[in-house]
Amino acid sequence: NAGVTQTPKFRILKIGQSMTLQCAQDMNHNYMYWYRQDPGMGLKLIYYSVGAGITDKGEVPNGYNVSRSTTEDFPLRLELAAPSQTSVYFCASSGRTGGNTEAFFGQGTRLTVV
Amino acid sequence: DQQVKQNSPSLSVQEGRISILNCDYTNSMFDYFLWYKKYPAEGPTFLISISSIKDKNEDGRFTVFLNKSAKHLSLHIVPSQPGDSAVYFCAANNYGQNFVFGPGTRLSVLP
C-alpha cells in the first residue's frame, strides 16, 4: 500500500517556467489537498478537492491551478513560476467517510525558483 | 489571522522526562483535533487525534488533552525518547471542512 505518492521530490525552476507537481493516492480517498510549507511556518492550504471533478481554493491559491479528473490523481500546476513559490509542497488525502478522520501526507516536493 | 497557534517554536527535554506541547485555537466550530509529527525531508505523519466530545485520548506514550472552554489542547509524551525529536504540528478541522495547521513546535529530546 503506497499511500500518497508525490513526484518529483526535488525541482529547480527558472522564473517564468511552468511545471506540474504530481500526486496520486491508492486509498480511494475522496478528499485531496495541496499544502505548501515555508521555512519556520506551518502548512498553508493551496487547493483542495472533495471528489473527482470538484476543486476549490484554499488560503493561498494565487499562481497555482489544479484538476481532479480521477479519484486517485490531483496534480498541481504552477504557471509562470516566481521566487515566492520556492517552498516545500505536500499533497494529502483523507477518507472523510462516516466522520472525522486524519489526512495522510506524501513525502513532499522541494521546489526552488531561481 | 492564525486560527491554530503553537506559541513555542521549540522545546528541549531530557530523555525519560515528559514533553508537553501546547496548542491554542480560536475557531469554536472546530470539532476534531490532530497532532502530526514531521521529520526533516519527510511528510507529516499522523500521531494522535481527539474529538471535541472528549477531553482526553491516549495511545501508548502519547496523550492528548482538550480543554474546550479554554480552546486549548496539549500533547504529552511520556517518557520522551531521542527518536521523538521532530517538529510537531497541531491541526484542527470542522467536519466537512479543511485541516488548519499551526506553525509547529520543534522538540529536541536530549540523551
Descriptive account of the structure:
The complex is a heterodimer of chains A (114) and B (111). With 114 residues, chain A is an all-beta fold. In chain A, 0% of the residues lie in helices and 49% in strands. In chain A, strands 2, 4, 5, 6, 9, 10 and 11 form a seven-stranded mixed beta sheet that branches. A four-stranded antiparallel beta sheet of chain A has the order 1-3-8-7, with no helix packed on it. With 111 residues, chain B is mainly β. Chain B contains no helices and eleven strands. Chain B has strands spanning 4-5, 10-14, 19-25, 32-38, 45-51, 56-59, 62-67, 72-77, 86-93, 100-101, 105-110. In chain B, strand 6 (56-59) and strand 7 form a beta hairpin. The model of chain B has no long low-confidence stretch (mean pLDDT 94). The chains are: A mainly beta (114), B mainly beta (111). Chains A and B meet through strand 5, strand 9 and strand 10 of A and strand 4, strand 5 and strand 10 of B.
Radius of gyration of chain B: 13 Å
Sheet/helix structural class of chain A? mainly beta
Order of helices and strands of chain A: EEEEEEEEEEE
Helix and strand element order of chain B? EEEEEEEEEEE
User: How many DSSP E strands of chain A?
Assistant: 11
* Beta-strand content bin of chain A: over 45%
Biggest interface goes to:
A-B, 25 and 26 residues
Shape of chain B: globular
Rg result of chain A: 13 Å
Structural class of chain B: mainly beta
